[in-house]
Write a structure and sequence with these properties.
single chain, 275 residues, alpha/beta, Lysozyme-like, five-stranded antiparallel sheet, globular, binds zinc ion
Length: 275
């Protein structure tokens, strides 16, 4: 299951891509603008351009380009794209056809909003696929090796390998990331939910055979914002044919299960395995 609609891949020209890599390296979901035109055929045109040989002045490629009704792949996730100096080896780069100097109003026009919807769906897909939290990282957090979402500008400020500042000062980060979280989080993390002292979350495998249960999170104050980690657990369960339903229970009920804690492999989630 994916949230975004993907066009068939139009491969970037081989002179525009780097080495094969393991997708395990991917920790940053990086948003760009093309500095080309915004329009109904701009995304397709951009993929045609990326499929042409590199020139002396332009060797860029992106893994994905956001169209108004789909996401267009150009570079497979397990290849390096030349998009974000300093973070090409561990980043997944996606590009809006458009310009970083767009105003808030221009980022809220009809075409931009269609692109935002595709971008949010793409972020949700990749957050689940690679266990990446849907939070925008600061340059310091990028340098520290954290996993998350950022713009080219944040990588520039982290590593100073380029001067690019896209997607620009008026890009609506909260709007796009909040929309992505709506896809990955089964519950609304905003008002009305009890605090962690009153509640933990349990994901159960209701197949009648497998009695394992996963609990997240409880001990830290960050349990609910990390919707991607919770959704990643659910996604894993559902991929294995489990129910994956989220239940809420009280700490008393939780303690009643008799638990042993484990680290969930490959994810940013903290879990307790109930046997
Ligand atoms: Zn860029």
């Amino acid at each position: 299951m994916t949230f975004a609609t993907y066009a068939p891949i139009k491969r970037a020209h081989p002179t525009r891509t780097g080495a094969h890599r393991s997708t395990a390296a991917i920790r940053l979901l990086i948003l760009h603008t093309s500095e080309g035109s915004e329009g109904l055929i701009s995304a397709e045109n951009l993929t045609v351009f990326i499929a042409s040989p590199r020139s002396a002045t332009n060797l860029a490629s992106y893994h994905y380009v956001f169209d108004t009704d789909c996401v267009r792949p150009c570079v497979p996730d397990d290849y390096v794209a030349y998009a974000t100096g300093g973070a090409n080896h561990d980043g997944l780069a996606a590009c809006y056809p458009g310009k970083a100097y767009q105003s808030a109003a221009e980022w809220n026009d009809e075409i931009s909003n269609l692109q935002h919807e595709q971008a949010a769906r793409w972020l949700a897909d990749k957050a689940l696929q690679y266990g990446i939290p849907l939070v925008r990282l600061t340059p310091a957090q990028i340098v520290a090796g954290q996993r998350g979402v950022c713009g080219h500008v944040d990588v520039t400020n982290a590593y100073h390998k380029s001067t690019h500042t896209d997607p620009g000062p008026h890009f609506p980060w909260d709007k796009v990331i909040d929309r992505a979280r709506q896809f990955t989080s089964p519950i609304d993390p905003t008002p009305g939910l009890p605090m962690e002292d009153d509640m933990v979350l349990i994901i159960t495998c209701n197949d009648g055979v497998d009695t394992e249960r996963w609990v997240t999170n409880g001990p830290t104050k960050s349990w609910i914002p990390d919707g991607a980690a919770l959704a990643a657990l659910q996604f894993t369960l559902q991929s294995a044919g489990k129910d994956g339903t989220v239940h809420s229970v009280s700490p008393e009920q939780f303690r009643g299960y008799g638990v042993s804690s484990v680290q969930y492999p490959g994810r940013d989630a903290w879990g307790v395995r109930i046997v």
